[in-house]
Design goal:
Oligomer: single chain
Family: Belongs to the thymidine/pyrimidine-nucleoside phosphorylase family.
Radius of gyration: 22 Å
Organism: Acetohalobium arabaticum (strain ATCC 49924 / DSM 5501 / Z-7288)
Function: Catalyzes phosphorolysis of the pyrimidine nucleosides uridine, thymidine and 2'-deoxyuridine with the formation of the corresponding pyrimidine base and ribose-1-phosphate.
Shape: globular
Keywords: Glycosyltransferase, Transferase
Mean pLDDT: 94
Enzyme class: transferase
CATH architecture of the largest domain: 3-Layer(aba) Sandwich
Distance between the termini: 38 Å
Helix content: 40-55%
CATH superfamily of the largest domain: Nucleoside phosphorylase/phosphoribosyltransferase catalytic domain
Number of helices: 16
Length: 434
């Protein structure tokens, strides 16, 4: 078997055999295939696409390229939730303890943030002492004893995906639905998930900017799940404006705690209840989404989810007292208010610009090696649909120095669109694909 023949076959729009896909991924991971040949194959895929079967084969080849985590020692149905990335996306911090308190084991492996999108691991590490580097034995034991654990992904989880993504990133082949879908699903399958609930973000702060793109990606991932016997549900949610109000690691932990107290932003609570209900549904705990929502509301109102979050923090070495005293979390030295320059109604907030502004303050990283500041970020005081007068506070910047302050303030001002007439609040949940 030769890589040249496989590249030519795909360039000509023909369907590759399972063995051919496994050969390409296996040889590339082993270092026996040069970058330029896999880059040529990726470009051929970009232009000619892949069939459902090919996409599933690629997913499994990448999942099998490194460690496969066996979660069978965990009692019960293991359900994983994955977000395609957004701004102010604090759902895991709320959802993991919420669903665990409802009786579904949550064994969550998460990543770090890059660019304008935040990472769950960075957020949890804003809690003093919180350890995200658990051994597999510790991870499984925590889920069995407490129903929940959240840890960073192992370095050898789907290594072929990491190599291929790095290559796609520099060869203009990132925007292929088949390659994106297989990238996401390979990591979920390698991490041992039995059932998968996907939060596919749509809008300015998301990877998928248009509804049509997001639907294609969601359908492709659900189909991969079907092909490889992993029940998968995709929820399409709005990321045209940041989710919730907080953008920044410690700030988002604070917002998550307030949400578990029942005092969080309406959109964050709604999305968590939607995703959580789907998790309960695929786990066989409830038959309908509405039944799942009611069960989760009870768990939230009783304080059980908050207690579970406190238990999660303590189990992973963190200072669980932050739940009772938010001042124990890292705090920035200064708070600067961003004022409205005109009166009217908030018609839009560019989520990507808000995320980039927070990154400029130090809340995110431009490269994987950058060190983030857990205390800084942005808290939005006005969201889409709100009325503001001249001089009202649109957002509060939490900063430790003035280095990028003027540029960040200009960036945030431009992110807000204020009009004379009130527009409807943005729809949060677009579609659920099963």
């Amino acid at each position: 078997m030769r890589a040249y023949d496989i590249i030519l076959k795909k360039r000509n729009g023909k369907e590759l055999a399972t063995a051919e896909i496994e050969f390409l991924i296996g040889e590339y991971t082993a270092g026996r295939l040069p970058d330029y040949q896999l880059a040529a194959w990726a470009m051929a895929v970009f232009f000619t696409g892949m069939s459902k079967r090919e996409t599933a084969d690629l997913t499994m080849a990448m999942a099998d390229s490194g460690d496969r985590i066996d979660l069978s020692p965990i009692q019960g149905v293991k359900v994983d939730k994955h977000s395609t990335g957004g701004v102010g996306d604090t759902t895991t911090l709320v959802l993991a303890p919420l669903v665990a308190a409802a009786g579904v084991p949550v064994a969550k492996m998460s990543g770090r943030g890059l660019g304008h999108t935040g990472g769950t691991i960075d957020k949890l590490e804003a809690i003093p002492g919180f350890n995200t580097s658990l051994s597999l034995e510790e991870f499984i034991a925590n889920v069995n004893h407490r129903q929940v654990a959240v840890a960073g992904q192992t370095s050898n989880l789907a290594p072929a995906d990491k190599q291929l993504y790095a290559l796609r990133d520099v060869t203009a082949t990132v925007d292929s639905i088949s390659l994106i879908a297989s990238s996401i699903m390979s990591k979920k399958i390698a991490a041992g998930a039995e059932k998968i609930v996907l939060d596919v973000k749509v809008g300015s702060g998301a990877f998928m900017k248009t509804y049509e793109q997001a639907v294609k990606l969601a359908e492709s991932m659900v189909e991969i799940g079907r092909q490889v016997n992993r029940q998968t549900v995709a929820v399409l949610s709005n990321m045209d404006q940041p989710l919730g109000q907080a953008v920044g690691n410690a700030l988002e932990v604070k917002e998550a705690v307030k949400t578990l107290y029942g005092e969080g932003p309406e959109d964050l609570i709604k999305l968590c209840l939607t995703l959580g209900a789907q998790m309960l549904k695929v786990a066989g705990m409830v038959e309908t989404e509405s039944e799942g929502r009611e069960q989760l509301k009870e768990v939230l109102n009783s304080g059980a989810a908050l207690r579970k979050f406190k238990d999660l923090i303590a189990a992973q070495g963190g200072n669980s007292s932050v739940v009772d005293d938010l001042t124990l979390l890292p705090a920035a030295k200064k708070q600067i208010e961003l004022k409205a320059q005109k009166e009217g109604y908030i018609a839009g907030i560019d989520a990507e610009e808000v995320g980039l502004a927070a990154m400029s303050l130090g809340a995110g990283r431009e490269t994987k090696d950058d060190i983030i500041d857990p205390s800084v970020g942005v808290v939005l005081q006005a969201k889409v649909g709100d009325q503001v007068n001249y001089g009202d506070t649109l957002a509060t910047l939490h900063i430790n120095d003035d280095a990028n302050l003027m540029a960040v303030k200009e960036q945030l001002q431009s992110a807000y669109t204020i009009t004379d007439e009130q527009s409807d609040k943005s729809k949060l949940i677009y579609k659920i694909i099963e």
